[in-house]
Design a protein that fits this description.
Elements: H1 4-11, E1 23-27, E2 30-33, E3 38-41, H2 44-47, H3 56-66, H4 79-90, E4 96-100, H5 103-120, E5 128-132, H6 141-145, H7 150-153, E6 163-166, H8 171-177, E7 182-187, E8 190-191, E9 197-198, H9 201-214, E10 217-221, E11 245-248, E12 259-263, H10 265-268, H11 284-297, H12 300-319, E13 325-331, E14 334-339, H13 343-352, E15 355-356, E16 358-359, E17 364-367, H14 375-391
Parallel strand pairs: 3-15, 5-6, 5-7, 7-10, 10-11
Antiparallel strand pairs: 1-2, 2-3, 4-12, 8-9, 11-12, 13-14, 14-17, 16-17
């Protein structure tokens, strides 16, 4: 029988680099490949599997809902979608939700609704979308325009116009760069793909003030840092401000594809039927799962656990005596370790030591494990990292 590796290499578009093994099952914090080798998963499907692999309750909800209704499109009402929307609004700043299928789509929706808001106010010159250095908002054409990395952008130009990049965490640059032509300011409270860089409280609060003063909308991209990842349900809670729009996705539906654009009623007042849409978004099955995820992740004891284990991870990582480590930064269970060697060397060496690791940029190792991680899992990670760093030289 032809292997999955060979079939993928022959038939799947080669847009990803993959290690030469096939994952076949997972449980909790661990996954196994087809040879039976076990790996501690410090990626969680790129910050997706908040409840870990093969969660029993999630599996029960999938089976129960699949036996009732999976998909009817957004031409009809379904209870799971309505209940999920209510819960998202009740547990956030938002008054309304637009559902989609991914983080890039959620950011596209935020961009579209921000521009529609300006258009509805007859402010037709206000089209500019401001984003920041090292940002990552997705690879679709609109989101790509506000993801300022030449490697991603150059082959696909021209991109969406009226996109401006300002330096991250630079209040003076924001003061100078946000203008009467700025439609929206799009920012990750904690940058993920760009290297796990938290925004300062002063920077985020300044963006809120500048948007209010100059008539722009503030948009938070919490695709990676939202839904408990940083120790609060939403990362914005740690900044003392709320956005006008917010993009969500990754962990929302326990590995099923779902994104969401949350918005205030002020923004929603500009939205009309036909302005945006999605065939698959928030089908009954995925909505039922997402509601369960949100209910569990938002529990105070769950968030307390993320904070406790996150702090333990932080402390144990700082105990590592490895010359390759330059800096450790992050919050909760979203931690970046900057290295003085290419991160790919560590990621590749991790497979040998039973670790699934992922980079964020060229020199940062990113830890975004399932939020159910326990202290013994941290100890296992540290033990394997100690062995790994000895073998990978500077």
């Amino acid at each position: 029988m032809t292997s999955a590796v060979e079939l993928t290499q022959e038939y799947v578009a080669q847009t990803y680099k993959r290690p030469p093994f096939v994952l076949t099952r997972g449980k909790g914090m661990k996954v196994w490949d087809e040879t039976g080798k076990e790996y501690l998963d410090m990626i969680s499907g790129i910050a997706v599997m908040a409840l870990g692999h093969s969660d029993t309750q999630v599996a029960e909800i999938i089976q129960e809902q699949a036996e009732k209704l999976i998909h009817v499109s957004n031409l009809y009402y379904t209870a799971p979608q309505a209940q999920l929307a209510q819960l998202l609004c009740e547990k956030s700043f938002a008054d309304r939700v637009f559902f989609c299928n991914s983080g890039a789509e959620a950011n596209e929706a935020c961009i579209k609704f921000a521009r529609k808001y300006a258009f509805g106010n007859n402010d037709h010159q206000r089209r500019e979308i401001v984003s920041f250095s090292n940002a990552f908002h997705g690879r679709t054409m609109g989101a790509l325009a506000v993801t300022p990395k030449e490697q991603y952008q150059k082959p696909f130009q021209p991109l969406m116009g009226a996109a401006k990049t300002l330096p991250f965490n630079d209040i003076a640059a924001a003061e100078a760069g946000i203008s009467s032509e700025t439609c929206a300011v799009l920012v990750e409270p904690i940058q993920g793909e760009g290297g796990v860089y938290p925004a300062s409280v002063e920077f985020i609060q300044s963006l809120r003030r500048l948007c209010d003063e100059r008539g722009a909308l503030l948009v938070f991209d919490e695709v990676q840092c939202g839904l408990g990842r940083t120790g609060t349900l939403w990362a914005y809670e740690q900044y003392g401000v709320t956005p006008d729009l917010m993009a969500l996705a990754k962990p929302l539906a326990a590995g099923l594809p779902m994104g969401a654009c949350l918005m205030t009623e002020k923004v929603h007042s500009a939205v009309a039927p036909g302005d945006h849409g999605s065939t698959f978004a928030a089908g009954a099955l995925v909505s039922a799962v997402a509601k369960h995820v949100l209910e569990r992740v938002s529990q105070p004891e769950f968030l307390a656990h993320v904070n406790e284990v996150g702090m333990y991870l932080w402390d144990r990582l700082h105990e590592l005596n490895a010359p390759q480590i330059v800096e450790i930064r992050g919050r909760g269970l979203m931690v970046g370790m900057e290295l003085n060697i290419p991160v790919g060397d560590i990621v590749n060496a991790g497979y040998e030591h039973g670790l699934l690791l992922v980079g964020a940029g060229t020199h940062t190792l990113r830890f975004v494990p399932p939020l159910i991680m326990e202290k013994p899992d941290v100890d296992t990670l540290i033990e394997r990292l100690e062995q790994l760093f000895v073998k990978v030289t500077v």
